[in-house]
Amino acid sequence: AARARAALVSGSALGANLGNFAYGLSETLYGVEGLRRAVVFDATNQVWLLVVAHAVYAHRTETDVGGDRETRRAATRRRVAASVAKQARNPCLVAVVVAFAYRVMVGHANGFPPAIDEFLAFLGGANKTFAMLALGILFEPKIASADLCALGSALARRYGTSMMCAGVTLACIGPMLGELGSAVTVTCMLSPIALLTVAYAMEFSLDVTFAAALVNYSNLISLVMIFAISRVSFADPVALAPALLAIAPSARGATASSPPRWIVRCA
Q1: Which of 91, 143, 221, 243 has its CA at a distance of 20 to 30 angstroms from the CA of residue 171?
Q2: Residue 92: its pLDDT value, please?
Q3: What is the pLDDT of residues 181-198, one digit of tens each?
Q4: Residues 148, 154: Cα–Cα separation, whole Å
Q5: Radius of gyration, alpha carbons of the chain
Q6: What separation in angstroms does the CA of 157 have from each of 13, 29, 42, 134, 255?
Q7: What percent of the chain is predicted at pLDDT more than 90?
Q8: How far is CA 205 from CA 150, 192, 200, in A?
Q9: What is the pLDDT of residue 266?
């Protein structure tokens, strides 16, 4: 049980729910250009969410095949390779690659043909409806008291890591991103855990209820954190990096031990 819970926590830390969260907030807070920056960030997010996270789940949930160390390593490599090969054909990832290739071929100044734009707008509207329905179905913030400690630790680990990554990003490439780019990047990094976490929990026979709780509560936490961040000036992003890096260890302090240990302790 501890291994399964650790796999769920590790996988859920990769990727974020941008389409139904950061997109709308970025446009509201920073205008259309902010939305464009969020879409650019999401291209990388899709790779982490669809490929890397799935591979992590595949690796962390593999059964003991026995044999010597080399045999186990070979089995792990085969399992991860199968995961990557499967997810590389994911329609969402294929769409990202096709869109990028199209832009490279026709140039950034030219958009999609009107017919394709209309079809994509239709798909976007339909997807938003189903996504909001899914959020409504999932949003049941009740959780067993025995799981509250593990839930709090998992969320602290996730957001502590997010703030640490945001701080390092601003410190390293903040000037290149600029004020708007830095603000949108932090907004995306602090966005909620992806809805795919629940789908992955079902696929790998993990705790679906706990996965849904992670998604539920992360929506609330992200909303509060992004609202607070929106009140901060990003005119000097490098100057903000130390503050984010200082907060990150405090959040992760709730999870000072490795995942299996804190899960056992909470249990």
Answers
A1: 221
A2: 75
A3: 999 999 999 999 998 898
A4: 10
A5: 19
A6: 8, 27, 22, 25, 6
A7: 31
A8: 18, 22, 8
A9: 47
